[in-house]
Amino acid sequence: MLMRTDPFRELDRFTQQVLGTAGTWSKPAAMPMDAYRAGDEFVVCFDLPGVSPDAIELDIERNVLTVKAERRPLPGGDNVEMQVSERPLGVFSRQLFLGDTLDTDHISADYEAGVLTLRIPVAEKAKPRRIEISGTQSDRKEIQA
């Protein structure tokens, strides 16, 4: 249902271990995700603490869902002297490759307490269904020897 491919994920982990910094291709740690199926829908949750709802963009093209979010610096101007800055700032994005069995026309999104929750229904054609068998019972003829 939900296909996960990220060719740079392992390279990014290796770069982070060796250099102690995030890699240059993607930053999956900046947008951690959980995905699970609940009944007839897939639920995907992204942690986006400190991101305002107007700084989140959701786009879908074909079966690729792109989530883009921007964590902006705190307001304060020139009279703020940062003492510790460990939270990453900037634009983060993540792509999900959705299977054909999901109904991408009816995705709903909710953002509460720093968690973006997407609900993606399973397409009607992919739901399990019972197939009725029709026909009549044919008369049996016994063969006599």
UniProtKB/TrEMBL annotation:
Residues 24-136 form the SHSP domain. SUPFAM superfamilies: HSP20-like chaperones (SSF49764). Transmembrane segments: none annotated. InterPro entries: A-crystallin/Hsp20_dom (IPR002068), HSP20-like_chaperone (IPR008978), Small_HSP (IPR031107). CDD domains: ACD_sHsps-like. Belongs to the small heat shock protein (HSP20) family. This is Heat-shock protein Hsp20. It comes from Amycolatopsis rifamycinica. The lineage of its organism: Bacteria, Bacillati, Actinomycetota, Actinomycetes, Pseudonocardiales.
